[in-house]
Amino acid sequence: MLTPVAYGLAVLLDLLIAFIGLRFLLTPGPAAAGYGVPAKENGDAAYLTIKGLRDLTYGLLGLALLAFAGARAEAWFMLVVAIVPFVDTVIVLRHGGTKAVAFGIHFATAVTVLLSAALLFMV
N- to C-terminal Cα distance for the chain? Predict the structure, then answer.
């Protein structure tokens, strides 16, 4: 019972972060607004592209680890990659974003990623 839940949550999180990366690459303005810190008009294009590529890469790497290296490798990956949404929480708060977005999206994501790591370690 635990194995399908652990794998399912990991796959879902990997797909979601890959989707967020694609969104930043294809529609950077709305993606930045959804992140919690809207992009400046006529600016930030390079940073938004970097964020998109980073997130897409993390999502694909997570899927590859799960498929080819197994649950333990994915668990370590999730444990380390949880740093990103924790820091995203701080970034949103320090740059004028709302507490609702910072904690409701980014902090909640970090906790969910850590939960995924714990489940994968138990498989």
Answer: 10
Residues in the chain: 123
Q: Which two tokens stand for residue 43?
A: 């600016």
Instruction: Return the structure tokens found at 24.
Output: 């930043």
Count CB atoms within 10 A of the CB of residue 74: 29
Residue 83 DSSP class: H
Residues 32/38, Cβ–Cβ less than 8 Å: yes
pLDDT at 11 (0 to 100):
98
Span 84-103, average pLDDT: 97
Give the integer Cα–Cα distance in Å for 49 and 59.
15
The candidate with the shortest Cα–Cα distance to 14, out of 73, 91, 100, is 73
Q: What is the pTM of this model?
A: 0.94
The per-residue b/e assignment along 11-31, b for 16 or more CB within 10 angstroms, e otherwise, is bebbeebbebbebbbeebeeb
